[in-house]
Amino acid sequence: MRLFRVLTRLVTVVAWWDVSWWIGILFCFGSLCSITAGVLQWLPTAYPSIEFLTDPFVIAGTIGFIRAIIFLLGGMLLVVEAVNANQSDCFGWALKEALNSNRDSARLPSTDEEQGTGSGTQPAETTSDVQPDRRNCTHFNNPDRIKYKIMHIKQFKVEVRPSPGCAQAWKWWPTWQDVRVHYRHEIGFIANLILFIGTAVFLITNILNLPGVYERLPQGVLHGLYYPSFLLGALSFLVSSILYTLEVQRQWWKPAPHMVGWWIGMTNLVGSAGWVWSACLGYCDATWCQYQAFLALVWAPVVYLIGSLLLVYEAVEKWPRNMYTGVRLP
Questions:
Q1: What is the Cβ-side half-sphere exposure of residue 176, based on CA atoms within 13 angstroms?
Q2: Assign residue 86 a region: left if phi > 0, alpha if psi is -120 to 50, beta otherwise?
Q3: Cα torsion 81, 84, 89, 92: sign
């Protein structure tokens, strides 16, 4: 019953106004691309007798490049999310206003206009229920949208909603002054920035893996650029996953398996370890090394997909829940 409810929320709630939801969706699609590319690379090694209509490595290289672009977009949005902490569901309004040249059309109604008590004969048009409310940056699908408070819970302390009128303006990218003074002290921002850098480095590997490029790579470039960029990107994912896990835990040494965020960090940690393992095996020419390297490209993104699905679930379930009982924490 619990699993059915989780799957229902994942399928039925399309939180397009929330940057966290978009991050989860992008990493889900990226993980699916990784699984597909990994299977295409592993099959010829595992079953050399199979005849393919076309070279599977060509298809895998193309899919891998698409995956790298998706991961890069997700990494960029992670930085945007960290800069706009506690107002991730303002993303819809921020994007709408960024694309809207007429700023006056986004004017917020006054209190009198909201209640229809203005001097005019017709009440002014209020914010539609099919899009996030800019004043509070919450959506009608959130059952607790009327609550704006800071939750102080025994297990953790998290700011769920900024109070009306005190939320910061939406920022698409941090300034160097913001990073130097404020964000460099936040573990969440550091983790997101490291992962974004990892996705950018990971893009280098996937460019070199494109059809027609990888076949022409000399041994020096293969060992001096291809595998090092793959390894560095995987290590970035690994470090950011560790930071995500530590961020959720009350004490750095005490696991928090009752929190969704902890499982996101752990699944990403296992998936990242698989990519690190695959990158390291690239320097080994033995048959078993190639087999295990390609196999890791299958199971690692599967684990990462689980974490990405949990990201989506966390986005549609804004209030922290106990993983075992499903009950909202007090």
A1: 0
A2: left
A3: negative
- The model's confidence at residue 119, banded by pLDDT at 50, 70 and 90, is very low
Band of pLDDT at residue 201, cut at 50, 70 and 90: very high
Average pLDDT (101-118) is 44
pLDDT at position 228, please?
A: 95
Determine if the pTM surpasses 0.90: no
Measured CA to CA, the distance from residue 22 to residue 73 in angstroms comes to 10
Which pLDDT score, from 0 to 100, does residue 175 have?
80
Is there a contact between 140 and 127 (Cβ–Cβ < 8 Å)? no
116 phi-psi bin (left φ>0, alpha ψ -120 to 50, beta other): left
Q: Phi and psi dihedrals of 183, rounded to 5?
A: -70, -25
| Cα–Cα distance list, 144 to 122, 141, 160 (Å) | 30, 9, 10
Least confident among 156-160, 183-187, 250-254: 156-160
Q: CB neighbours (10 Å) of residue 301?
A: 26
On whether the CB atoms of residues 75 and 151 are closer than 8 A, the answer is no
**Residue count (the chain):** 330
Tell me which amino acid residue 234 is: A
Rounded CA separation 273/303 (Å): 10
Bridge partners, residue 159, by sequence = 150
Other residues' Cβ atoms within 10 Å of the Cβ of residue 153? 11
Separation between Cα atoms, residue 20 and residue 294, nearest integer Å:
31
